[in-house]
């Protein structure tokens, strides 16, 4: 019955949908936020002013999705987690694991990406997850211990993440950085204003601090 109710809510016009999502699920949805025809059902959902989720997205088994002001998830993205309410033996050793997705102000996820939020994924303000078919994978199997393990992913502010990349748990991309298309990011980097790329990704070159992309006051790129 609960899934039937969820399915009905998905196809409702947004003004009515917002009321039902607040009433039945206790979600915090700004009047100027919007969700299209998408299956978005984390334990907790916060959408601030002018944040948007487009059509044909799926988001399940997360504790929290938080879109700050102006943040957007475009369409056809698959966002999953592993609920802290799950009674499985998986991840029982990680008492502080937080299955969540946080998009800071004016950040954007484009189309057809997969975000595994078994652990936290944070995407900084004015950052673009561009192109198609990128994978953010916060969990894997620890070969030595023979158990599933997870680590958070952090993407800084004013970053540009190219198409079809793979980002693994524990990786971090610093502020004002570019990650090249088809790269594998599996490490934490600290050098700002840098271009990273390759398999695995490494520092390629420094970027001009006065680049227009780094000076934007709007998330949308014309």
Describe the fold and architecture.
With 222 residues, the protein is mainly beta. It has one domain (2-206): UDP N-Acetylglucosamine Acyltransferase, domain 1. It has 2 helices and 25 strands. The chain has helices at residues 2-10, 14-25; strands spanning 28-29, 34-35, 39-40, 44-47, 52-53, 58-60, 64-67, 72-75, 78-81, 100-103, 108-111, 114-117, 121-123, 128-132, 135-137, 139-142, 147-150, 153-155, 160-161, 166-168, 172-173, 177-179, 184-185, 194-197, 202-206. The chain has a 9-stranded mixed β-sheet. A 7-stranded parallel β-sheet has the order 1-4-7-10-13-18-21, covered by helices on one side. A 7-stranded parallel β-sheet has the order 3-6-9-12-15-20-23. Strand 24 and strand 25 (202-206) form a beta hairpin.
Output the keywords.
222 residues, mainly beta, nine-stranded mixed sheet, globular
Layout of SSEs?
Blueprint (H helix, E strand, L loop, with lengths): L1 H9 L3 H12 L2 E2 L4 E2 L3 E2 L3 E4 L4 E2 L4 E3 L3 E4 L4 E4 L2 E4 L18 E4 L4 E4 L2 E4 L3 E3 L4 E5 L2 E3 L1 E4 L4 E4 L2 E3 L4 E2 L4 E3 L3 E2 L3 E3 L4 E2 L8 E4 L4 E5 L16
Parallel strand pairs: 1-4, 2-5, 3-6, 4-7, 5-8, 6-9, 7-10, 8-11, 9-12, 10-13, 11-14, 12-15, 13-18, 14-19, 15-20, 18-21, 19-22, 20-23, 22-24
Antiparallel strand pairs: 16-17, 24-25
**Biggest β-sheet, characterized?**
9 strands, mixed
Instruction: Supply the number of structural domains.
Output: 1
Strand order of the largest sheet: 2-5-8-11-14-19-22-24-25
**Which residues form runs of ≥5 with pLDDT under 50?**
none
CATH architecture classification name: 3 Solenoid
Instruction: Name the overall outline.
Output: globular
């Amino acid at each position: 019955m609960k899934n039937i109710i969820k399915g009905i809510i998905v196809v409702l016009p947004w003004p009515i949908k917002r009321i039902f999502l607040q009433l039945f699920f206790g979600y915090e949805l700004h009047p100027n936020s919007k969700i299209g025809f998408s299956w978005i059902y984390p334990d907790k959902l916060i959408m601030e002013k002018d944040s948007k989720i487009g059509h044909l997205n799926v988001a399940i088994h997360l504790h929290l999705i938080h879109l700050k002001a102006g943040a957007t998830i475009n369409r056809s993205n698959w966002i999953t987690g592993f609920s802290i309410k799950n009674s499985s033996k998986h991840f029982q050793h990680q008492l502080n694991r937080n299955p969540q997705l946080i998009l800071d102000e004016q950040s954007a996820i484009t189309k057809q990406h997969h975000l595994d939020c078994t652990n936290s994924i944070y995407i900084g303000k004015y950052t673009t997850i561009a192109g198609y078919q990128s994978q953010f994978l916060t969990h894997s199997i620890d070969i030595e211990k023979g158990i599933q393990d997870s680590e958070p992913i952090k993407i800084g502010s004013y970053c540009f993440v190219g198409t079809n990349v793979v980002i693994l748990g524990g990786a971090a991309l610093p502020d004002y950085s570019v990650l090249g298309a088809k790269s594998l990011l599996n490490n934490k980097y600290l050098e700002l204003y840098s271009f990273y790329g390759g398999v695995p990704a490494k520092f390629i070159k420094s970027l001009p601090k006065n680049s227009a992309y780094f000076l934007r006051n709007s998330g949308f790129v014309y």
